[in-house]
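Chain X:
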Amino acid sequence: MINDYWIEDGKLLLTRYTGSVTGQEMITSTLEKSGDERFDRVKYILQDWTQVEDVYVSRQNVRELVACLRPISRICPKAKNASIVNPDDTGSALMAWYKYLADDLTWEVDIFTSHAEAEAWCDLYLQYVQRQQHLNESSA
């Protein structure tokens, strides 16, 4: 499953992947949001892969995904892009392949193996996480 969260008036796009994810789902999700006007304001694009159980993504899917992202990267060329992956061989290999292919995008692309690294990278994400924790504590 793929869920998008536009945070701080569109300055941060957080995409969470959970359960099983296919390459076609990723491509379809990217195409559906590609015309969103919030890309004009986005500063950070963060993908959280830490809750994924199964990934069915081929190298061809990654090539197609990068092709879909090229026009988006031209809309927000100064945005920073990162993924949080589990520190295992599958996650690291897939993201390394993505980072290699994404070299011709206008974005700076990073890969993190912990939420703490992502929080240090993006203060908007850190603030979002802190608000969510506060809400969870208040409702408990």
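Chain Y:
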Amino acid sequence: MKSNNEHDNNKERYFFPAVEFDWREQEKIRSEINTNYSKYENDRFCVHLSYGLDGNAYAYYFENHGFDEYNIYVRAYLEWGEIKWEN
């Protein structure tokens, strides 16, 4: 996951700017995506549902440029079936 970079390691440009949030949460989500990568490997744009460090549910929208090459561009708070956009 390249939160402060406009390109992946192969110099391919990301389509969206990255959203900024706690680096520990970024690493948690990156690890979860890596663990479940077979779910995402053939998709360019993906959504990963998980809990943030604050215990709240979020939908993390990300660009997939290959294993461990992710750009999270939206972190949306989920509340009882509703999505509350943060950015």
